[in-house]
Amino acid sequence: MSVYYGQLIFEKSQEGRKGYTLPKSPIKEYELEDKYKRGDCPQLPEVSEFDVVRHYTNVSFKNHGIEKGFYPLGSCTMKYNPKINLEVSSHENFTSLHPYQPVETVQGVLKIYYETQKMLSEISGLSKYSLNPFAGAHGEHVGLMIIKAYHESRGDHKRKKIIVPDSAHGTNPASASVAGFEVVEVKSNESDGTVNIPDLKEVLSDEIAGIMLTNPNTIGMFEKDILEISKLVHEAGGLLYYDGANLNPLLGVARPGDMGFDITHINLHKTFSTPHGGGGPGSGPVGVTKELEPFLPAPVVRKAGDLYLIDGKGKNSIGQISHFLGNIGVVIKAYAYLLTNGKERMKEIAKMSTLNANYVKDALKDVYKLPVDKICKHEFVFDGLKDESIDVRTLDIAKRLLDFDIHPPTVYFPLLFKETMMVEPTENESKQTLDAFIDAMKKVAKEAKEDPDILKNAPYTTPVRRLDEARAARKPIVKYKDLLEE
Amino acid sequence: MKFPKDLYYTETHEWVKVEKGHAYIGITDYAQDALGEIVFIELPEESDELAQGEEFAAIESVKAASDVIAPVSGVVVNVNEDLEDSPELLNEDPYENWIVKVELEDESELDNLMSAEEYENMSKE
Amino acid sequence: MFKYLPHTYQDIDEMLKTIGVDSIDDLFAEIPDELKQCELDLPSSHSEMELREHFKKLAGMNEPLIPFMGAGAYDHYTPSIIPYLTERQEFMTAYTPYQPEVSQGTLQYIFEYQSMICQLTGMHVSNASMYDGATATAEAMFMAAGVRKKNRVLISATVNPNVIEVVKTYAHYRGIEIVVVDEKDGATDFADLKDKLDGETAGMIVQNPNVYGVIEDFEGYSDALKEHKALFIMNHDPSTLTHLKTPAEHGVDIAVGEAQSLGVPLSYGGPYIGYMATTKKLMRKMPGRICGVTEDADGKRAFVLTLQAREQHIRREKANSNICSNQSLMALFVTIYMATMGKKGVYEAQQISYNHAHYLHDMLLKLPQFEQAFDKPFFKEFTLKTTLDPEKINRALREKGYLGPLSQGRFDENKKDLVTFAVTEKRTKEQMDELIRTLGEL
Fold first, then answer.
1. H helix runs in C63-187, sequence order
2. Nearest CA to CA, how far is B63 from chain C (Å)?
């Protein structure tokens, strides 16, 4: 049966089969003029409802999800996605609202938007948030537009450069570039990947619009000189952008706003537990200081007395960056998570995620090479096996972990080391799960020494084995029709 | 790693072979090795004008993307179309499989390029 | 201890011992004390019962209206099995498919999604989806500017003004000039397009059906644009492509749009899903994720993200887009919609929408308060000229539980007398007759 289960939905199609019912309509048929009609009929599948259910159930079995097993993917914060969030956000009074309903009929959803915005401000120490950005990368793009609009509003047109450390997420330089900035890369300190202050001083000038930082950085190290960094950048007339990917270990501990950051984005799908959905939908709210509020994207949700209102584009706003008010469905889930945890739990989240990361790091550092042997925050990186004479790569270790029902850590990122493995266990994992991971990592290291081929040919137990990626890129087959024509 | 003697080289890992007023341009062994499995090459068209130091093609591998910089200026007279369907030829033999042939505009531009020995020393650093 | 935080005190002690510190606070020692003074002013932790009660109140503060409005969000039917299947943890809790061996589920449905989008649009290749229709259009504008290496893009005045706004925002900060092509009688003014088109133009963006619901006639567009080496970008409601001429048949280079109309609930504007599809020639210039087919070590068919060299994590500042995700779960939503409704059902739902919209249109024209705005074909959304105050219309309909038509005055002061209705297969004859009666009495 496995071959049949592995088919595409198109391959299960049988002419004349149906999976739907629609009510009979008493209205007569109207006919579209021929000149506007398409030539052929789109070849969509013809299957029964049960065919669809069984098909996608079998398709789902080929995925690793958080509820199945450990998912220590660095910088992605693969938390448990609480079920109650799904339950409350699925209420028909949220899902069936048209985005242009009059405000008095959508006060509940606007209240959620407004209060989430308020809570994010409090947590991050900034003045106001827009929840319109759809994802982290979208938030970065929006934040950079705000930086540009701010300088332009002051008639300061020279500032065309954004500083990005070499340890940054790949999206940072790409976002700077699509917002029309030039990227200036600064090298990190080799000892711990933090910003090198003399190097920073070197590049600061009246052409610098701002700097993008992640704190803790991508190897889990807190930028302990952050106050000096923000002073230097501000003195040079630049703004500080906080990439919120790593906010989790600072919840209730320290706030980006207090560190001197002017703009942040927060990933609700990381820090505030909304599901990653296999790549989206996420949500990347952007927060700013009081001074930058007028630049936030439109539309804006505002409270006047007891009423929540929506404002259009203000004079200084960067403009619209989404058709409506962003991924509201995601915001509702994050709001539920914030209320469940409340002020009592924020610091606990930071502490437990940090404890878990340090525990795994120290339990494995005799076996795996730890390039930065310091206390980390919620994540850390290994640089391959400690015994460098063993001929296996991080990729092989990652693939072998799959056979243990463990999703491997993030690999080959950040680019600071050659064989990077970035581990982020999150606060939800018990000591027993972490111990099982530690055992698996040790076992894989042992196999690597005794018989490296075990790793090089892994995985063995997954729905498919290792893939030929070059083949896919050389002769791209990107739809079912291409398969038929092959 | 091969460094044929009769070629000129650039710091950005292209080579040039001059033959009867024409220049063949390709990427070096070092470049193909660094890129890994090459999956696609975006080629210029015949009669396009190349300017020394400016990009004229792009190469993609599974894990990287790289622009190809013109080592010399000139009009493209021939494009190696085999590469369109079989970009992996660049991995197999980067010196046999040139990318474009151009009409050499200014021979003195060759003075800006490296010899095999100089290039070999540079790649070892 | 807390329900999401599993450690016992004994666990914590043992872990601290392994780390070699005395307390958890020691793990935060490097953070300057002056930064650590934060007592957050947040609500208290809610138990599950309290949270449910709280949400009951919030839900009660919303009043879903029955929409006779579209304007980029359409109230189509969602089969029951879609939420059931998309909420499976394997789909919902997975990350982006970076490890293809354990992400074949995500990759396979993305491949199916791409195949279906290509069937609808007639284009060669679709990406794995984008944030929404407006940002997908802005990304197409970036793509055109990048491919043609020119910084001027035209957009028709008949594109939804919100989409125009998003395109303008994206363009402004990247130094791309957006020029609006005039409208004439509810459609793009082709003569004005030809006037504004020149050798510096990277592309032209149109929408079909347009902001008035009009099905435009794009005869001659493709040739005119080709003559100036400008790319033809079309924002098209994909659901209407069961019937309408495809972007490919119009000679389009980049097809984009909002795929919410394929079964995604209204959800107050999001999450929705933008789609983008292009020609074989431009495949490697398209932003976003693309899934392709390959084989595993045993020669078994498998799916993998491909053509990744275009993407931000490799190209960094050279990338033409910073997008690093898709609306994956919404792509699954749309895929299951198209599988369940199938070849016949998607068509039938659209045909009913078409019939109902035309019925309402014809009946409203019988009222003295309404007259035809444009003598143009339409699909499920249409615009009428009215002597009534649009606010009065909407107030009266709201009392009956309906969301009335879009007033074009929302976008343009001078168009206050134009109202745009949308009708889907979910609007019954009874509802339409009640609407007609209500408006007739105004």
1. 81-86, 89-92, 104-121, 133-148, 161-174
2. 6
Q: Quick check: C134 pLDDT over 90?
A: yes
Most A-contacting residue of C173, C174, C216, C347 (CB-CB within 10 A), to test interface:
C173
| Residues B44 and B25 sit within 8 Å (Cβ to Cβ) | no
Domain count along chain B? 1
**pLDDT, tens only, A207-229:** 999 999 999 999 999 999 999 99
- With H, G, I as helix, E, B as strand and everything else as coil, classify residue C403: strand
CB contacts under 8 A, C 233-262 vs A, are 241-246, 249, 258
| Shortest distance, CA A390 to any CA of chain C (angstroms) | 23
Among the listed residues B20, C290, C397, the one whose alpha carbon sits nearest the alpha carbon of residue A473: C290
| C377-436 per-position pLDDT tens digit | 999 999 999 999 999 999 999 999 999 999 999 999 999 999 999 999 999 999 999 999
Mutation site, C314, C315, C316, interface B, largest B CB count within 10 A? C314
Return d(Cα C397, Cα C406) in angstroms, integer.
Answer: 12
Instruction: Provide ipTM, 2 decimals.
Output: 0.97
The total of other beta-carbon atoms located within 10 Å of residue C177's CB is 16
Report the helix count and the strand count for chain C, using DSSP H and E.
Answer: 13, 17
Query: Does B62 reside within a domain?
Result: yes
The alpha carbon of residue B61 is apart from the nearest alpha carbon of chain C, in Å, by 7
Q: Cβ(C374)–Cβ(C186) under 8 Å?
A: yes
- Asked, for residue B3, whether it belongs to a domain, the answer is no
**B51 lies in a domain?**
yes
State the Cα–Cα distance between residues C266 and C379, nearest whole angstrom: 20
Q: Which residues of C touch B42 (CB under 8 A)?
A: 284
Neighboring chain A residues of B87 at a CB cutoff of 8 Å: 474
What part of B 26-45 touches A (C-beta under 8 Å)? 37, 39-40
Q: Which of residues 8-67 of B touch C (CB under 8 A)?
A: 39-40, 42, 60-65
- Neighbouring C-alpha atoms within 13 Å toward the C-beta of C15: 29
| Angle between the N-to-C axes of helices A431-450 and C9-19, in degrees from 0 to 180, rounded to the nearest 10 | 40
Q: Residue A426: left (phi > 0), alpha (psi -120 to 50), or beta?
A: left
Among A38, A175, A464, the residue with its CB nearest the CB of C241 is A38
Domain residues for the domain of B53 are 8-124
Q: Within the 66-125 window of chain B, which residues sit less than 8 Å (CB to CB) from chain C?
A: none
Q: Is B67 a member of any domain?
A: yes
- Give the list of residues 6+ apart from residue A468 with CB closer than 8 angstroms, or none: C294, C295, C296, C297
CATH of the domain at B96: 2.40.50.100
CB C345 within 8 A of CB C338: no
The half-sphere exposure of C378 on its side-chain side, counting CA atoms within 13 A, is: 30
Judge contact between A18 and C343, C-beta under 8 A: no
Give me the phi and psi of B34, to 5 degrees please: -70, -35
Contacts with A7 from chain C: Cβ below 8 Å: none
Structural domains of chain C ordered from first start: 66-75+343-440 (3.90.1150.10), 81-336 (3.40.640.10)
**pLDDT tens digits for C57-75?**
999 999 999 999 999 999 9
Length of chain C: 442
Residue A455 vs residues A54, A447, C226: alpha-carbon distances, Å: 34, 7, 53
Residue A58 and residue B55: Cα distance in Å, rounded? 47
Domains and CATH numbers, chain A: 84-340 (3.40.640.10), 359-470 (3.90.1150.10)
Amino acid in position A155: G
Residue of B45, B56, B60 to mutate, testing the C interface (most C Cβ within 10 Å of its Cβ)? B60
- Return d(Cα A480, Cα C82) in angstroms, integer: 22
